[in-house]
Amino acid sequence: MDPPELPECPVCLQPFDGESTTPRVLACGHSTCETCMIDLPKPPFPRTIRCPACTQLVPYPPQGPSALPKNIDLLRISSSLLQSNPNRLNSKPKTSIVSSPDFIPNLWSREFYCNWKPWIVPRDTVSVDMSVALDEAFLLGTVVNPDASSGEVSSRCSMEIHQKVSLFKIGSFTHSNENRFSYSCLAKAISILFKMSDGALAELTLILTSSSMEYRICTSYGLWYNEVNEHLYIVCGKKQSSLLNAIVSDIHLQDDISTFAMIGMELCETITRLHKTQLVTSCTSLSCFGIDNFGHLSIDFNELFIVGLTIQNMIAENNDNTTLEMYTFPSPELLQEFVNKSNIDFDFHKSTSSITYSSDVWSIGCILLVFLIGKSFSEETHNFLCSYISTLIKGHDHKGLYISWLDKVSNLLDTRLGTDDVSMKNMLHKCLCLDPNTRPHVTDIWKCIRELIIKPKFDIIGNSEEKMVSKTSDTDTCHCLLLGDLFWSLKKTNKVSKNGFESGVIEGILDNSIKSTDLKAHLDCISGLAIGNGFLFSSSFDKTVNIWSLSGLNHLHTFKGHEHKVTAISFINKQPPLCISADNGGEIFVWTITAPFQDTPFKRLNEEKDWRFSGIHSLAVSDSGSFFYTGSGDKSVKAWSMHDYSLSCTMTGHKSTVSTLAVSKEVLYSGSWDGTIRLWCVSDHSPLAVLDEEEGSGTFSSSPFGSILSLAIDNQTQTLVAAHENGCIKIWKNDVALKPVSAHTSSIFSICMEGEWLFSGGWNKTIVVQRVLGGESGVDVKEIGSIGGDSVVTALVYWEGKLFVGQADRIIKVYSFGG
């Protein structure tokens, strides 16, 4: 036989000895050592503390734990046991935690959500005129609300109002038109990201973070979900001017070598900075380079992707009539890779890419020649590239085509430069070599251009400047954005394998997987729902209470007898099980839930009637089942004994109707139209604290959020939720108030919570589904989505993966997840 355990402190787990660990008795009956009680976190409620053993909120003397009585019995027992066996050890049984089914399965891990949520730009941040949209893959927008990050989500980068941005599509949200469940913008954006491959997500992360690493890359502000077309876009800053504007504005640099040199050096420095992030474009256009107010260039990834899409579509269509856009200069090796990857029989992942850092040198050389020679070079190169793509697709020899084009470019270059600037002429020739390994480094081009404006006597500053544009070896690893998973996944956007994990988890939910069942029996608005003993109980303004089977969702019986509208209902799990219903006339009926069901109540109680007030509005039952409570129109909370069904206590303090009640861990919470929540100790019904009370409050709500219409508590996560008249939800997690959440645009009549799931419904006929997540960084409330309805939601209750919804149109809807 095991020896009895030593009584110990539930916090430090040290045996009580009367010296270092003196047991002090709390109002709940549990004891904690005095030292630990001083260090316990104090709730924000005045003169209260939460017991570490039962987590009940109990009164705490202002003098501290020394004012609480010692537990003499525990000290006596501990002393005797220690004397008999000082080496006694404690052994504690493990308790198993049984989790209830989720209404909606986890679409993604919490880690994935936390990593990507900061990159989601709030939906009200960017404005796009869809009527003048250029293309579904590329939009131009304007920042209209840079402070939107104070809402449900926040991006890592700040934006300024009226700032121009470019948007490039990276994915789409697909769903069934018949689907009842509508996901929030944040949930849709995260689900699109979750369906991407690891390679695409890695590239996206590189794009979003590279602008913070190098100033020559246009700022990537994050990801924005467009509700109009349901696409997810990368948001990048848009420069007011670009190199393309310089050509369109008919700026000729043939006779302005200094300006040509400045542009050339800026171009080389921008590409060098890009290479420092191990990124390669291998194809640029004049439109890809933006110019700031100081004349510095930066590269725009969104514009680069658009250029790549043009080439990709041209190769995919295999149409000789399709031409490449002017001033676009892809390297020959990139075109070959595009043709290979467009071939369905070609295994690109097993092949070795020929793209290196030198691939960008081709584009640099072409852009320099555009500014140096002018329109004649652009036309010759445009015709050559279009013909070159055609020969690659058809598998013909392209060397003759290349040699012919290079001869024409040489003649144009000789005409422009003559016998002068031999070094520049040779450098440009090397840039256009068909073999990437023979092309010069970007830093060599930069130094050659610098010599056009800086004479050799100034070479003393060369060493310091060379450090700014350090040489990158072609042997270093590089990543070409136009050959990665992110860019090529656009050809199969949102086409998820039906045999894969993504199809089973995400697509299964979106493909009409929220089932709905209608329960019809009442003749008026549903006022309350309760669950217990395998039954669903519903109350209604039709003065009846109906009983439904949870297994078959069929109607079993109707309790009749109320002479007024039934406004509240509750279930008591005892022997025999009971159902309590109350009406707005002040009558309380206690029904026995045993088969066969009786037509008359087991007990019939009456509140004191007062013509000025509207009877009972809410019901709740204590955890022990010893009391049930009524919240009334006379501003009071009444406690009724379950032993003799007598009125035990009347609790006053509210300044208006007590609209909702909830009990958790021997604390009674009462919400009122006065906008406050009062906490009462269940053991002696004494007041504990008041939440949201303001000085000078009158009869009506003093809270800026309006009256409190519903309360919900989850014991497991210690979360208190209050729904307000203005559609706002306030949450207390572990007794700490969180930032209010604007869940609805109008009054919330009912909320319920199960674990991390939070459901709310009200006047706008919509049920909003949210999840309350806690972690080391704090608590986060994320909206998963909503279920649209056709009637006002008046009551909610959750049970075993099913959501029961009472509506004003007399119907009870049962929502569940399943095929």
Structural class: alpha+beta
How are the strands of the largest sheet arranged?
5-10-11-8-7-6
Report the sheet with the most strands, covering strand number, pairing sense and barrel closure: 6 strands, mixed
The CATH architecture category of the domain at 241-477 equals Orthogonal Bundle
Low-confidence stretches: 88-98, 149-154, 460-471, 493-512, 695-700
Q: Let me know the CATH homologous superfamily of the domain at 241-477.
A: Transferase(Phosphotransferase) domain 1
Instruction: Give the helix proportion (percent range).
Output: 10-25%
Structural write-up:
There is one protein chain. The chain is an alpha+beta fold and 819 residues long. Among the domains are: 23-84, no CATH class; 110-237, 2-Layer Sandwich (Phosphorylase Kinase, domain 1), CATH 3.30.200; 241-477, Transferase(Phosphotransferase) domain 1 (Transferase(Phosphotransferase), domain 1, Orthogonal Bundle), CATH 1.10.510.10. Helices cover 24% and strands 30% of the residues. The protein contains 17 helices and 47 strands. The longest helix has 20 residues, at 257-276. The chain is elongated, with a radius of gyration of 36 Å. Mean pLDDT is 81; it is low at 88-98, 149-154, 460-471, 493-512 and 695-700.
